[in-house]
C-alpha cells in the first residue's frame, strides 16, 4: 500500500477490529490505478454512523442522514460512509430515503460509472464487480448498469461524464452517450453551483475540446446556463486548444470572448463569485485592448503581471499576432517605471503640501494623471521630478483640478 492510503489504513483497521467491513472506494481507487494524483481518500463501511462516531475521538457529522461521518486522523479528513442503497430519487438529485445495507457490492452498484465503482481492501486487493479496471484499460466512461436509471438518480452525473472525458481523455460508451442525449433536460433539477464545479473541472481538464464536442453531440449545451446558442455556435468553441490555459479565470475569459455576450449576466447565471467575475472582467478588457492595439504599458500596468500572462496565453491560443513571448512580456512588465500607485515616489500628502490645498476629489484625479505620466515616462518617478512638474504647471493644475 502506498501514500496517500497509508495513514487512513488505521481507520480501516479500527473499523475491522470492531467487527465491521471497511474499504477504500470511489475516485481514490480509480486514480491510484491510473497512477494519477489521488484526491480525497473516501472509505465505505458496514458500520453505522453512530458506530463510526464512537470508534474515533475526532469526528464531524456532515451528512449523517446520508451515512457520512468525517473522521479526523493525523491532520487529515476522511469521509467514512456507511454502505447504502438509495431509495427513490423523487427530485433527480438526492434520494428521498437512504437505506443502510451490509453489502459492499450493493453499495458499489449505486455509484455512477464503472471506473468509480471499485473498492480496495486493506491488503491493496481491488474489488471490481462491474469491470471498472477493464474500462480503465479501454479508456471508457460507462455507467454502472442502466444509464437512464443512473442519470435519473442524479442528473449531475451527465456533467460528471463529460468532465471525466476531459480530465482523463477517455471516450464514452454509446449507451451512456445516448442516455445523455435523451435526458439532458434533467439538468434543470440540479443546482447551478454543482454544474459549475463540473464545468470548471472540464475546462481545466486534459482534453476540454473533446468534452465540449461531446456536449455538442449530445446537445447538453441546451441545458447549460447561457449556452443554448445553437449547435453551430457551440461547436466553434471546440476548435480551440483550451488545454493551453492554466487558470479557470482564463477559461471564462476565453469563453466570453468567443461567445461575445454580456459578461455580467452570463457569469451571474453560472453563479460565479464576485471576485472571480472581477478578474474575468479585467482580463477580458485587457484582451480586447491588446487585440486592438497591441501591448501598451497602460494595459500591462492595469492587468498586473499575473493577469498579463493569462491574457497573453489567450492571445497565443487565438493565434493573435499580438502574442508576445512570455519572457519578453515579463521583462517588459518588469521594466515599467511603476507597477502600482504604491510605487509612486510621492503621496497625496506631498501634493497637498506643495499646492497648499486640502484634499478632495481633485487630488485623486491629479494623482491619476501623475501616475500615467510616470508610467509612460513623461515624468521621472522621483519626488524632485514630480514636484518640479507640479510647480511648472501649477496654474493650469489649479484651474483643471
Ligand atoms: N453524482 C455522484 C457523485 C459521486 N458518486 C460516487 O461517489 C464517489 C466520490 O465522489 P466525488 O468525490 O464527488 O467524485 P470522484 O469520482 O472522487 O472524483 P474527484 O476525483 O473529482 O473527486 C465517486 O467516485 C462515485 O463512486 C456517484 O456515484 N454519483
Ligand atoms: Mg473524490
Describe it:
The chain is α+β, with helices and mostly antiparallel strands. It folds into four domains: 1-129, Beta Polymerase, domain 2 (2-Layer Sandwich), CATH 3.30.460.10; 139-244, Hydrophobic Seed Protein; 257-336, Methane Monooxygenase Hydroxylase, Chain G, domain 1, CATH 1.20.58; 343-400, Orthogonal Bundle (Serum Albumin, Chain A, Domain 1). It is built from 20 helices and eleven strands. It has helices spanning 9-17, 27-33, 49-55, 104-109, 132-137, 147-153, 156-168, 174-183, 192-203, 208-218, 231-237, 248-259, 263-269, 274-293, 297-317, 326-334, 348-355, 361-375, 383-392, 394-400, and strands spanning 22-25, 42-45, 59-63, 68-73, 76-82, 84-86, 98-100, 119-120, 126-127, 140-141, 171-172. Strand 8 and strand 9 form a beta hairpin. The longest helix has 21 residues, at 297-317. The mean pLDDT is 95. Bound molecules: cytidine-5'-triphosphate and magnesium ion (MG). The site of magnesium ion has 4 residues, from loops. Residues 22-142 form the Poly A polymerase head domain. It holds the Pfam family PolyA_pol. GO terms for molecular function: ATP binding; CCA tRNA nucleotidyltransferase activity; CCACCA tRNA nucleotidyltransferase activity; magnesium ion binding; tRNA binding. Belongs to the tRNA nucleotidyltransferase/poly(A) polymerase family. Bacterial CCA-adding enzyme type 3 subfamily.
Amino acid at each position: 500500500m502506498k501514500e496517500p492510503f497509508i495513514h487512513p489504513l488505521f481507520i480501516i483497521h479500527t473499523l475491522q477490529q470492531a467487527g465491521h467491513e471497511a474499504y477504500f472506494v470511489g475516485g481514490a481507487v480509480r486514480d491510484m490505478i491510473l497512477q494519477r494524483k489521488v484526491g480525497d481518500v473516501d472509505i465505505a463501511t458496514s458500520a453505522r454512523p453512530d458506530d463510526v462516531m464512537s470508534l474515533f475521538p475526532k469526528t464531524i457529522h456532515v451528512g449523517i442522514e446520508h451515512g457520512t461521518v468525517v473522521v479526523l486522523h493525523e491532520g487529515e479528513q476522511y469521509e467514512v460512509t456507511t454502505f447504502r442503497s438509495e431509495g427513490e430519487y423523487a427530485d433527480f438529485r438526492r434520494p428521498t430515503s437512504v437505506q443502510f445495507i451490509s453489502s459492499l457490492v450493493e453499495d458499489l452498484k449505486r455509484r455512477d460509472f464503472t471506473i468509480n465503482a471499485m473498492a480496495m481492501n486493506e491488503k491493496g486487493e481491488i474489488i471490481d464487480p462491474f469491470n471498472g479496471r477493464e474500462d480503465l484499460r479501454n479508456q471508457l466512461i460507462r455507467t454502472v448498469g442502466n444509464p437512464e436509471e443512473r442519470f435519473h438518480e442524479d442528473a449531475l452525473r451527465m456533467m460528471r461524464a463529460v468532465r471525466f472525458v476531459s480530465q482523463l481523455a477517455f471516450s464514452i460508451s454509446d449507451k451512456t452517450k445516448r442516455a445523455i442525449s435523451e435526458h439532458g433536460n434533467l439538468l434543470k433539477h440540479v443546482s447551478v453551483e454543482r454544474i459549475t464545479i463540473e464545468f470548471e473541472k472540464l475546462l481545466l481538464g486534459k482534453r476540454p475540446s473533446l468534452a465540449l464536442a461531446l456536449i455538442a453531440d449530445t446537445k447538453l449545451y441546451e441545458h447549460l446556463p447561457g449556452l443554448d446558442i445553437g449547435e453551430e455556435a457551440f461547436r466553434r468553441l471546440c476548435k480551440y486548444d483550451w488545454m493551453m490555459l492554466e487558470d479557470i479565470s482564463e477559461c471564462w475569459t476565453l469563453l466570453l470572448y468567443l461567445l461575445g455576450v454580456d459578461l455580467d449576466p452570463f457569469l451571474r447565471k453560472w453563479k460565479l463569485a464576485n471576485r472571480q467575475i472581477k478578474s474575468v472582467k479585467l482580463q477580458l478588457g485587457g484582451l480586447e485592448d491588446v487585440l486592438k492595439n497591441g501591448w501598451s504599458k497602460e494595459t500591462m500596468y492595469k492587468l498586473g503581471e499575473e493577469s498579463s500572462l493569462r491574457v497573453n496565453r489567450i492571445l497565443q491560443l487565438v493565434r493573435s499576432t499580438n502574442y508576445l513571448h512570455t519572457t519578453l512580456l515579463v521583462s517588459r512588465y518588469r521594466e515599467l517605471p511603476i507597477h502600482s500607485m504604491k510605487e509612486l515616489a510621492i503621496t497625496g500628502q506631498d501634493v497637498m503640501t506643495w499646492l497648499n490645498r486640502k484634499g478632495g476629489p481633485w487630488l485623486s484625479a491629479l494623482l491619476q494623471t501623475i501616475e500615467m505620466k510616470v508610467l509612460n515616462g513623461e515624468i521621472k518617478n522621483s519626488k524632485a521630478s514630480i514636484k518640479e512638474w507640479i510647480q511648472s504647471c501649477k496654474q493650469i493644475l489649479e484651474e483643471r483640478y
